[in-house]
Structure formats: structure tokens, C-alpha cells
Write a structure and sequence with these properties.
The structure is a single chain. The protein is 38% helix and 17% strand. It is built from ten helices and 13 strands. Helix 1 crosses helix 7, helix 2 runs parallel beside helix 4 and helix 4 packs parallel to helix 5. The two termini are 31 Å apart. The longest helix is centred in the N-terminal third of the chain and has 21 residues. The protein binds nicotinamide-adenine-dinucleotide (NAD) and uridine-5'-diphosphate (UDP). The site of nicotinamide-adenine-dinucleotide has 27 residues, from helix 1, helix 4, strand 5 and strand 7.
Length: 329
């Protein structure tokens, strides 16, 4: 397949590019490098630098390249920042999707796989969460992703653009070569922050809230390896290429770990004591998010291969140890 990966210099995008190439696909990456890294892009992929809100930039990509499927990872995704600066999120996440859909329609490109999130659900009524459960986001980031899903649905009906929306739970881990991995600035995700302690970059990890209604009082999340997410994108593209209809899929392991359990596993993996300090809840955090991914397993044939938390953290640790300053750009 010929795949255009928008946001392919980012964390999940760069891992997907690598897996796509490994599977024999031809890959073109387009990225603004706002949060991504040029060095994260596999050298075998063709690369265009620009912003997807710029219609002329997309015209160039779509004219110069023959594209079967678009994979769309571009977004701002910091929950806290989305609360203090919501328009930045509406502008990039929704603005980007509008220009992209207009240009796909103009250039006759009819298939897209895009990044959605567990944040579309908000505070769930039950776990594991299935795709038909209520979607009531508790922050502007989740709202923009839900609005994107709805925009894709209507565009699908009106213009025949078929989409797959993948609602990831907590993406983590790194490629087995430890040559690419997570490098967000600022970093807000639990696992890379925990690993900053054994790296000597942070004295302790804060536990945000110990009074949740969970077995140890800390929040529970479903941690899914980034390479398993990458594989789901390849399966979703195949599904669309074989006439699959527009649909939405959760992607998680179906097992939840508390913040305390994640810290304890990181201690085991790194052999470091990793001091932790209990602190206040972080605004907008649901107590538990656990995915049912039965639909992705049944329809896409997806099967997570790296589902042990220890293996996930070990892969992240290998990346951070080899690259303590990330991509250094
Ligand atoms: P990331 O910030 O590492 O990657 C996003 C990439 O998109 C970056 O390379 C950035 O430079 C690029 N980009 C952003 N806006 C752009 C624009 N207008 N034009 C061109 N390029 C642009 O983020 P990530 O963690 O890899 O997440 C990828 C996607 O997955 C995002 O859409 C995010 O909302 C979603 N998601 C991530 C997680 C997670 O745990 N990381 C969970 C659920 C959903
Ligand atoms: N968390 C924490 N300390 C930190 C960072 C995160 O206790 O320094 C908690 C956070 O409150 C949430 C979980 O770890 O319950 C996962 O947070 P992350 O930001 O990694 O992902 P999210 O679930 O918010 O997408």
C-alpha cells in the first residue's frame, strides 16, 4: 500500500511508519515538527515538512504522491493545556481535519485511518468500555477528537470517504530497537515521568490522587504498547483497502493498572528505588479507563503482542537509557 502518514514524526506516528515499512509498504510522511522530531522519521520514508492546515501544502503532497490510505496522527494532545487554551486545540485538531477532508475530497482520496482517544468517553459509567458507551468528554481535547469523529462520519456519508477511527487508551513503550521512543516536551505521561527518576532527571514521581474509588486509591489505566497500536493501523488500512466500511474501534489490552502498580513495576524493571510522593488529584482524571477491544480483535483481527506491563516498561526504559535527552533536537 502507498500510505501518507500525517504526523509521522511524532511518537505513535513514527512507530507506525517503521512498522509500515517493515511490512513492505511505501510511506510518505508529512509533519510540521511542532511536537515531532525529524530524527524519529525512518530514513526510508519520503518526507514533507509543513502544516496540514495549509491547503497548498496538502495539494502538493496529494499531487506529487500516489496515496491509497491516509493515516492522520496530527493533533495537540495535552489535556491540561486544552483546558487553559481550548481555541489552540479547536484550531489545530478540528481546523486540520477540515482542511484535510476538503483536500482528500478534491483529490479523490477515499480512505483514512485516524487517531482518536479514550478521552472521548470522559468518566465512564462502567469498565471495560465498549465503543457504543456514552461519549461525554471532560476536557476540550476529548471534545475536539469527538467532533473530528463526527465530522468524519458526515463526510463519509456525503463524499464516500471511508474512515477508521482508533480510540487508543494509554500509549506507551518503545520500538524493540530502542532507536525511537517517546519524547514529548513537556512530558506529562506517567511512564516516561517515572523513568526520569532512575535517569537522574527527577527526584521523585508524584502520585496524583490516592482517594479514588479503586483498590489502592490511585487511578487505573489500560497501558497499550505503541508497536501494538502501529499494527492496528496496518490492519485498519488493510480493512479499508478490502472494502471495509467506516467504523470506530477501541485499542487497549483490557487490563487496568493503578498508578502505584505502574511505579512498582518500574522499580522492578529498573532496579531503582524510585521514590514516590502522594499529591493532589490532577483535574479531569477519570478514576478508571479500561478498554474492551473485542471489536478490533473480531473485525480487524488485531491481537496485542506486547501486553505485559513489565515488557512495556522495559522497552520504554531501553529507549530512555540509550537516549536520555530524547532526539536532542
Ligand atoms: P505527538 O505530539 O508525538 O505527535 C503528533 C505529530 O503531529 C507531531 O509530530 C506533530 O509535529 C504533528 N503535528 C501536529 N499538528 C500538526 C499540523 N497541524 N500539521 C502537521 N503536523 C502536525 O503525539 P502522539 O503521542 O504521537 O499522538 C498521536 C495522536 O494520537 C494524536 O492525535 C493524539 O491525540 C492521539 N492519542 C495519543 C495518545 C497517547 O497516549 N500518546 C492516546 C490517545 C490518542
Ligand atoms: N499520573 C501521576 N503522576 C504523574 C503523571 C500521571 O500520578 O506524574 C497519573 C495520572 O493522574 C493518570 C495516570 O497517571 O491517572 C496516567 O496519566 P497519563 O498522563 O500518563 O495518561 P492519561 O490517562 O492522562 O492519558
Amino acid at each position: 500500500m502507498n500510505i501518507l502518514v500525517l504526523g509521522g514524526a511524532g511518537y505513535i506516528g513514527s512507530h507506525t511508519v517503521k512498522e509500515l515499512i517493515k511490512a513492505g509498504n511505501s510511506v510518505v510522511v508529512a509533519d510540521s515538527l511542532t511536537t515531532g522530531h525529524r530524527k524519529a522519521v525512518d530514513s526510508r520514508a519520503k518526507y514533507y515538512e509543513g502544516d496540514i492546515r495549509d491547503g497548498a501544502f496538502l495539494d502538493k503532497d496529494f499531487t506529487e504522491e500516489k496515496i491509497d490510505v491516509v493515516m492522520h496522527f496530527c493533533a495537540y494532545s495535552l489535556v491540561g493545556e486544552s483546558v487553559t487554551n481550548p481555541l489552540k486545540y479547536y484550531n489545530n485538531n478540528i481546523g486540520g481535519a477540515i482542511t484535510l477532508l476538503e483536500k482528500m475530497q478534491e483529490h479523490g482520496i477515499k480512505k483514512i485511518v485516524f487517531s482518536s482517544t479514550a478521552a472521548t468517553y470522559g468518566e465512564p459509567e462502567r469498565v471495560p468500555i465498549v465503543e457504543t458507551d456514552p461519549t461525554v468528554p471532560t476536557n476540550p481535547y476529548g471534545e475536539t477528537k469527538l467532533a473530528m469523529e463526527k465530522m468524519f462520519k458526515w463526510a463519509s456519508e456525503a463524499y464516500g470517504i471511508e474512515y477508521v477511527s482508533l480510540r487508543y487508551f494509554n500509549a506507551c513503550g518503545a520500538d524493540e530497537t530502542a532507536s525511537i521512543g517517546e519524547d514529548h516536551g513537556p512530558e506529562t505521561h506517567l511512564i516516561p515521568l517515572i523513568l526520569q527518576v532512575p535517569l537522574g532527571k527527577r527526584e521523585f514521581i508524584s502520585i496524583f490522587g490516592t482517594d479514588y474509588a479503586t483498590h489502592d486509591g490511585t487511578c487505573i489505566r489500560d497501558y497499550i504498547h505503541v508497536t501494538d497500536l502501529a499494527q492496528a493501523h496496518i490492519l485498519a488500512a488493510d480493512y479499508l483497502m478490502h472494502g471495509g466500511k467506516s467504523d470506530i474501534f477501541n485499542l487497549g489490552n483490557g487490563v487496568g493498572f493503578s498508578v502505584k502498580e505502574v511505579i512498582e513495576t518500574a522499580r522492578k524493571v529498573t532496579g531503582h528505588a524510585i521514590p514516590a510522593k502522594e499529591s493532589e488529584r490532577r483535574a479531569g482524571d477519570p478514576a478508571q479507563l479500561i478498554a474492551s477491544s473485542e471489536k478490533a480483535k473480531k473485525i480487524l483481527g488485531w491481537k496485542p503482542e506486547h501486553d505485559s506491563l513489565e515488557e512495556i516498561i522495559a522497552s520504554a526504559w531501553a529507549w530512555h537509557k540509550n537516549n536520555p535527552d530524547g532526539f536532542e533536537d
